[in-house]
Amino acid sequence: MDAPRARLIAAVAGCAALLAGTAGARTIETPRPYEAFFGAVSAATPPRAARAEVVAGGRVVASAPVSDRRARVRLDLDPGRYDLRLRFLDADGRRLGVARAESVWLLPRSAARGRRELRPDRPLAARLAAHGRAYRGWAAVWTHDLATGRYAGWNADAAFPAASTVKLGVLIAALGRFGAEPARSRGWQDVRDVATWSSNVASNRLLVRLGGSERRGAWIVQQTLWRLGARSSTFTGFYRLGTTRRTAAARDAPRPLPVYAHRRTTARDLGRVLLELHLSALGNRLALRRTGLSRHEARVALGLLLAGDGRGENRGLFRPTLGGGLPAAQKHGWTTTVQHSAAIAYGRRGPRIVVVLTYHPRVRIAASRRLATAVLEELGMETVRGG
């Protein structure tokens, strides 16, 4: 074999080896697509990689040396949604490969905290009660500071018509059954539509996918809600009246509603569901057992709720006050008589669960939003008027 041909074959072989070495690093390991994450970016690197750069918004935003064939880079960016690329460079600055993660949600570092309910905040509960009683209708409030474990509420165990808020159970059950990989997950588009737009059609389709029928799918969602601690909540299938297990005795219901709803929930129940989802995203073992999710699936659930479509009534009760600068994983519900929002707000001092439920025979979203604003300001949340 002549020397030029031998060099050509060697070069081709070298390129093939390089491609083989980078093939396994094409996807960023943390965060993966659609995940919420807390600032750390990591991935396996190809051979000879000496440095890794993170590209977001068309520019290099962070870099770090490679150690033990792994890239670990910490981002210092404003919270929000990003498409990330992780570029691998050799010692001379030549590019060896790239890994990607699209539509990921960067949360502030303070978000990586999560304490269960430790002690009540009675002065705060008294102040929230004053706001709740002032609402011209029926209201409920629940809040849980995940950084300290302190919690407070008013009318938090009163049963309200749930509207779409209990679709949180559909979201969690579907991700647990079908996974969170868009290219391989059955019903991925329906999962996204339930989380980001609260689609009734998508929810109904997922019920059939989950159980083979509406009734069986609804039972799976009901069991999911109970497992998460939402013992007073019910899910009745395709939004028709039905029967279910008797609700748990209320502990905090000074102003119960004058109506009975078959599909119902409480402010405390919705707070418990969001708590288990957040703790699952942090890798808490008990929460992972309760949700039935992997940490990746829980982080995708948070990412989808963070990416909710903010148009129309799906804007919810909190966005006008929080504005766009404070990430909030939110689920809303609305009908002609109710306006509800349940959220994990990721502020500078740590994550906080906030739930506001409102009922009136002729509910007005402006009045419900005024109550929500009063609650957020009582909590000292970072607020942006008109955001």
Give a quick set of tags describing it.
Beta-lactamase; five-stranded mixed β-sheet; six-stranded mixed β-sheet; disordered N terminus; Immunoglobulin-like; 387 residues; 11 helices
What is the topological layout?
Blueprint: H1 3-23, E1 36-37, E2 40-44, E3 51-56, E4 59-65, E5 70-74, E6 80-89, E7 95-106, E8 119-120, H2 122-134, E9 138-145, E10 150-154, E11 160-161, H3 167-178, H4 188-197, H5 200-211, H6 214-227, E12 264-265, H7 267-281, H8 285-291, H9 295-306, H10 319-322, E13 328-334, E14 338-347, E15 350-359, H11 365-378
Helix pairs in contact: 2-11, 3-4, 3-5, 3-6, 4-5, 5-6, 7-8, 7-9
User: How would you describe the shape?
Assistant: globular
Query: Which structural category do the helix and sheet elements fall into?
Result: alpha+beta
Number of E strands: 15
Global mean pLDDT:
89
Helix fraction bin = 25-40%
Number of domains: 2
Task: Tell me which CATH architecture of the largest domain applies here.
Answer: 3-Layer(aba) Sandwich
Instruction: Give the spatial strand order of the biggest sheet.
Output: 8-10-9-15-14-13
End-to-end Cα distance, whole Å, is 71 Å
Beta-strand share of residues: 15-25%
Order of helices and strands: HEEEEEEEEHEEEHHHHEHHHHEEEH
Uncertain ranges: 1-25, 240-248
Helical region count? 11
Q: Please identify the top-level CATH class of the largest domain.
A: Alpha Beta
CATH homologous superfamily annotation of the largest domain? DD-peptidase/beta-lactamase superfamily
The main sheet comes to: 6 strands, mixed
CATH-defined fold name of the largest domain: Beta-lactamase
Rg on CA atoms, Å: 24 Å
